[in-house]
Amino acid sequence: MRGTNAALGVAGLAGFLALAEAVPRLGLVDDDYLPPAGRIAVALGDEAADPAFWTALGDTLTGWALGLALASGAGIVLGVVLSVVPYLRQATASTVEFLRPIPSVALIPLAVLLYGSELRSVLLLVVYASFWQVLIQVLYGVQDVDPVAEETARSYGLGPWARIRYVLWPTALPYVMTGVRLAAAVALILAVTAELVIGAPGLGQRIGVAQTSQAVPEMYALIVVTGLLGLVINVGARAVERRALAWHQSVRGEVTV
């Protein structure tokens, strides 16, 4: 079954590439705006041979990784604190609901005013967008803790830290991993967007330069790179999630009766 799915996936990708090659060559679209897939592949090879491309890729990954780490750490810690202190959760609920829907791109003017086109501007946008993904999942995860297990732990004299470690954290961990996986994808989107709009160093900046200089095949090649980067990040995040939750029934495939 897995081999069949892989074959179907390869066939679908081959069909898409054939279509991307045929459409501009048949004149259905102007190849000045959508070059054939072959020309994009050649441009991709040229980019791979350019040291500046790898520097830009490193800049994008740096902004993504730092932003994701900061957002994940802050989201987990704050989520646990808000959950175990009911009064604090109630006092911050309206603030969270007000801030959470604000799109990160709306903060671009603020980021530019504060940090210009530096890495810190990218981090501001990435952390803001990714933080909510983790925080909300942590809050849901803590809410899912079995009250009977919580009371049993109290009756056995477990302290607050012991209850967090042995009762709360195992229940919340699947939600945390889901939040981190979602945040990883969001962080990449915001990193490239910030580079494209603000002009911070990275793949987004190179895409903007290619677009303004009419280097259309190179622009599409860089867009393909960002897509491949997102695919690798998603596959990696799922692998980490499966490894961290190897004990959980959702990964082991067990069915509770």
Anisotropy-based shape: globular
What proportion of the residues is helical, as a percent range?
Answer: over 70%
Largest sheet: none
> Kindly state the mean pLDDT as a whole number?
89
Order of helices and strands: HHHHHHHHHHH
Give unreliable regions as ranges: none
- Number of DSSP helices? 11
- Going by helix content, strand content and strand pairing, the class is mainly alpha
Distance between the termini: 27 Å
The total count of strands amounts to 0
* Structural Rg: 23 Å
Strand content: under 5%
Give an overview in words:
The protein is an all-alpha fold. The chain has helices at residues 2-25, 37-48, 51-84, 86-99, 108-115, 119-143, 147-155, 160-198, 203-212, 216-244, 249-252. The model has no long low-confidence stretch (mean pLDDT 89).
Features:
mainly alpha; single chain; 257 residues; 11 helices
SSE layout:
Layout: H1 2-25, H2 37-48, H3 51-84, H4 86-99, H5 108-115, H6 119-143, H7 147-155, H8 160-198, H9 203-212, H10 216-244, H11 249-252
Helix pairs in contact: 2-10, 3-4, 3-6, 3-8, 3-9, 5-6, 6-8, 8-9, 8-10, 9-10
Write a brief structural summary.
With 257 residues, the protein is an all-alpha fold. 81% of the residues lie in helices and 0% in strands. The chain contains 11 helices and no strands.
